[in-house]
Amino acid sequence: MSVNLAKGGDAPIQDLTRVLVALGWRPADDAGPEPDLDASALLIDRHGMVLSEKHFVFYHNLKSPDGSVVHEGDERVGVSGRDCEVIRVDLEQVPPRCARIVFPVSIYNGETTGQNFGQVRDAYIRVVDQTSGDELVRYDLTEEAAKYPAIIFGELFRKGSKWHFRAIEEGFSTGLRGIVTGFGVDVAG
After folding, report:
1. Where are the domains of the chain?
2. Are strands 100-107 and 37-39 parallel, antiparallel or unpaired?
């Protein structure tokens, strides 16, 4: 049975080793040019910093060096009723020094084009058992996110020896660049 989270809520991930973190959305009917959303993952240490530049998994770096986090590729068109981008996570392979895996979603060049999550409908993040396909946890983005071009949707985090998922929904007007530099990723240019 799936747990629907409220903003700030968290839920344990059952004793699983492999999960999918799936994101979905559809463009608003009046969105103008269709926004291109991009999901990412950052493997973060207990000090709040990315483990290394290669632990920033996104459309130009589809796999963490240890293979624990794999992005299945960029989907440029949102479609209602199905997952648009999927990130596979092998929880057993996540390096022990990783305290959490943060999942930002950004509108490609949204901070410069003026596009934001107000042009998106039915946006969600969900955690799925990779083996059975069962949804474990789900968070539906609220209207509060409408003014931002980038949002941290949620995170997987360690609580003792167990993994949990937390719904965050923290918006950034500075786009993906603003999110990743805050975690220590050096973004050139």
Report:
1. 3-182
2. antiparallel
Q: pLDDT (tens digit, 9 = 90+) per residue, 153-183? A: 999 999 988 999 999 999 999 999 999 999 9
Would the pTM of this model clear 0.90, i.e. be above it?
A: yes
Residue 44 and residue 64: Cα distance in Å, rounded? Answer: 12
What Cα–Cα distance (Å) separates residue 47 from each residue in 51, 65, 100, 167, 183?
A: 10, 20, 10, 20, 9
Top-confidence residue, 79 or 73 = 73
Strands (E), 130-161: 135-140, 150-159
As its CATH architecture, domain 3-182 has: Sandwich (2.60)
3-state secondary structure of 134: coil
